[in-house]
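hey so i finally got around to running both of the ones u sent me last week. sorry it took forever, my laptop kept dying halfway thru and i had to restart like 3 times lol. anyway pasting them below in the order u listed, first the sequence line then the structure token line for each. didnt double check formatting much so if smth looks off just lmk and ill redo it

first one:
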Amino acid sequence: MKQRKMVKWQPFASLPEQANYINQLVYDMNKIDRPILSEDQLDELNEKLFRYFENKEMVALEYYHDGYIYLVEGIIIKIEPLKQLIIVENNGKREKFSIASIVNIELM
């Protein structure tokens, strides 16, 4: 007997607008509120940030963006206090983050 594999699921993908709407709905339903950090937590994050930057240590950085918390790993190569940005590098790839979006930072 011949397997129908993905052919049997094609009718469900016949309405791409509906699939896009459902995907967006699921994405929006899974969003969380921005974590609120206390003054002590913010001070601790600030101390860790500068200590790890000075020592050029590999870190795991969690940041909040658009309802989700993301994880990035790398070395903090630059802190721009006036723009409130940090730059993290991992395997030659550089990413910029707002300092205000950071929710946690740990050594790897």
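and the second one:
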Amino acid sequence: MAVLKDKKTRQNLLKKGFVNSDSHHHFYEFWHNGTLIAKTRTSHNGQDIDDYLIKSMSQQCKVDKDFFKAFAKCTKSQNDYINELIKNNIITSSK
């Protein structure tokens, strides 16, 4: 069963272009060319992110679970994320 560290995941999302919008939860939004593409959240409790939540967050970020785990662990970059969104027909290439 996969587990991600909450604090490290939040830090890595911010490094990769997500913006934080705090409320009851930590909300993270990814904008591309002025359009909201993805929105996900983590809890304020700081607990590890379990397999179930990883799957939910990956769906909210519009990528598969394995890509999201690599993205959250910083082995995938913001450019990798954008290319994955293009590959999945979520956004179009800006070229």
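quick thing i noticed on the 2nd:
The chain is about 40% helix and 20% strand.
anyway thats it, ttyl
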